[in-house]
């Protein structure tokens, strides 16, 4: 039987709780849960009557951390490949390379080590300098459900190039509930409105399979 001090000393350093637990305060220290998807370690102690959570810690190795940065032209093909393996509308590889070259200030890529796992392509319409238009958001299947799309949007909004931005706009099809929820969440996060209106009607597209595109306008957004 290990006392909590013994168990603590045998734990890997990157899994130890932030605050040392004194042996005099507990009988046993249990590692009861490790959720590998979010790399969350929960430590519980026994105090005689049930268990009390005393600490949580993100146990993510530095090399596994997601970096958000401006894209380079070398990222264009990886963006294209990510979209190819998703349900997103795939544009030409040339389009992604062009966005990386000429709109890097308003595009964001997410990387784990050197692997691209997400991106945003966006631009500021010349005639509306207070708007950033989000063209496309892509997240690799390995990172879905972890809030990466929201982090990408937040990174975009706080870019120096977007310091005069007060509105975020994007077009979303009626059946794309995930994107609709994402932009409504953005509005709630910034305590502002999300206005939805007709934009590109179905008859504008060259085939009958493309849905209409609704315009989502989030704002005004106040920068902290």
Task: Give keywords.
224 residues; alpha+beta; Aminopeptidase; 7-stranded mixed β-sheet; disordered N terminus
What would you say this structure looks like, in words?
This protein is of the alpha+beta class and 224 residues long. It folds into two domains: 4-60; 67-219, Gcn5-related N-acetyltransferase (GNAT) (Aminopeptidase), CATH 3.40.630. The chain is built from five helices and ten strands, in the order αββββααβββαβαββ. Strands 4-5-6-7-8-10-9 form a seven-stranded mixed sheet, sandwiched between helices. A three-stranded antiparallel sheet has the order 1-2-3, covered by helices on one side. β6 and β7 (131-139) form a beta hairpin. The chain is globular. Pathway: Amine and polyamine biosynthesis; ectoine biosynthesis; L-ectoine from L-aspartate 4-semialdehyde: step 2/3. The chain crosses the membrane at residues 20-47. InterPro entries: Acyl_CoA_acyltransferase, Ectoine_EctA, GNAT_dom. One of its GO terms (molecular function) is diaminobutyrate acetyltransferase activity. This is L-2,4-diaminobutyric acid acetyltransferase.
